[in-house]
């Protein structure tokens, strides 16, 4: 089955026949949004990338994300999932291809400058995300930069921590948190900004069962478009409209 959640394929611009055929073919990113008239949130065409100029991590890679769509990304260690998210965010330049995010083609580093705030990237390593002394300061950083007032920011911090089961954690020292605790706070820093697009690199890695369930419930309920990288196929299949596998530089649909 191509779609891993109960979703009308036409809602995201695929005919049932096309959806069916995709389950047996390499995923070729048809122009899904053209059918419903909405521009894609992400539109990647012919992406080429290698770190060393020799071994290609991606070759002719196409990817499209529709408004409101949640796409899961599985793949072996080292297949390039994190690198792909970093290229989408402009942290690593592509070697060739076209990258369109939120309606604009992004070629040069300066084209990506408006993305923080609109696009929330959860780093695979929480230590790359958290840089303030306390939890409150880390979670407040994004909303402050979005121009929110101190009062609004305090309320956002309180609500976001509460939602993630971290109520009252404002004054905890970030560097002393456990790995799973850091993961949840890192997620709080991303969710606090309410970005239009979420790129989440292993949001449940290192979390206990109840924290995983909480994160799953939160992400399922969010209306934003998102790409979620995980090694937990069941988690992705429960919350995503599509689950793709990145392997040998190519994307293909994951079979249920
Ligand atoms: N800065 C770099 N320079 C050279 N090679 C790199 C660099 N960063 C990553 N790589 C290599 O690129 C490949 C893809 O790495 P990446 O972190 O994107 O994989 P991944 O799919 O996210 O893996 P995992 O599931 O383990 O998180 C790996 O072989 C990695 O060693
Ligand atoms: Mg990774």
What would you say this structure looks like, in words?
With 256 residues, the chain is α/β, with parallel strands linked by helices. The protein is 31% helix and 21% strand. The chain has 8 helices and 10 strands. It has helices at 16-22, 32-36, 81-89, 135-145, 150-163, 179-191, 209-221, 233-239; strands spanning 42-49, 58-65, 70-74, 96-101, 104-105, 119-122, 197-201, 225-229, 242-247, 250-253. The strands form 2 sheets. It has a 6-stranded mixed β-sheet with strand order 6-7-8-3-9-10, with helices on both faces. Helix 4 (135-145) packs parallel to helix 6. The model is unreliable at 1-35 (pLDDT under 50). Bound molecules: adenosine-5'-triphosphate (ATP) and magnesium ion (MG).
In short:
Helices cover 31% and strands 21% of the residues. The protein has helices at 16-22, 32-36, 81-89, 135-145, 150-163, 179-191, 209-221, 233-239, and strands spanning 42-49, 58-65, 70-74, 96-101, 104-105, 119-122, 197-201, 225-229, 242-247, 250-253.
List keywords for this structure.
disordered N terminus, alpha/beta, four-stranded antiparallel sheet, 256 residues, binds adenosine-5'-triphosphate, single chain
Shape: globular
Helix content: 25-40%
Rg over CA atoms: 18 Å
Largest sheet: 6 strands, mixed
How are the SSEs ordered, and which strands pair?
Blueprint lengths: L15 H7 L9 H5 L5 E8 L8 E8 L4 E5 L6 H9 L6 E6 L2 E2 L13 E4 L12 H11 L4 H14 L15 H13 L5 E5 L7 H13 L3 E5 L3 H7 L2 E6 L2 E4 L3
Parallel strand pairs: 3-8, 3-9, 6-7, 7-8
Antiparallel strand pairs: 1-2, 1-4, 4-5, 9-10
Helix pairs in contact: 4-5, 4-6
The structure holds adenosine-5'-triphosphate (ATP) and magnesium ion.
Adenosine-5'-triphosphate (ATP) binds next to helix 3.
């Amino acid at each position: 089955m191509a779609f891993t959640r109960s979703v009308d394929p036409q809602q995201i611009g695929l005919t049932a026949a096309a959806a069916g055929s995709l389950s047996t073919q390499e995923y070729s990113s048809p122009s899904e949004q053209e059918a419903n008239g909405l521009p894609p949130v992400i539109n990647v065409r012919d992406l080429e990338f290698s770190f060393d100029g020799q071994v290609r991590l991606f070759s002719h890679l196409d990817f499209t994300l529709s408004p409101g769509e949640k796409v899961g990304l599985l793949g072996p260690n080292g297949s390039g999932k994190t690198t792909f998210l970093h290229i989408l965010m402009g942290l690593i330049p592509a070697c060739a291809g076209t990258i369109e995010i939120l309606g604009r083609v992004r070629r040069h580093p300066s084209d990506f400058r408006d993305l923080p705030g609109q696009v929330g990237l959860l780093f695979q390593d929480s230590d790359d995300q958290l840089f303030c002394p306390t939890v409150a300061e880390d979670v407040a950083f994004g909303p402050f930069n979005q121009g929110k007032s101190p009062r609004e920011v305090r309320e956002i911090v309180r609500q976001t921590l509460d939602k993630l089961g971290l109520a009252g954690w404002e004054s905890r020292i970030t560097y002393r948190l456990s790995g799973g605790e850091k993961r949840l706070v890192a997620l709080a820093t991303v969710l606090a900004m309410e970005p239009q697009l979420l790129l989440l690199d292993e949001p449940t890695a290192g979390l206990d069962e109840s924290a995983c369930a909480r994160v799953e419930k939160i992400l399922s309920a969010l209306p934003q478009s998102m790409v979620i990288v995980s090694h937990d196929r069941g988690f992705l299949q429960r919350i995503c409209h599509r689950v793709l596998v990145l392997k040998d530089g190519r994307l293909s649909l994951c079979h249920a």
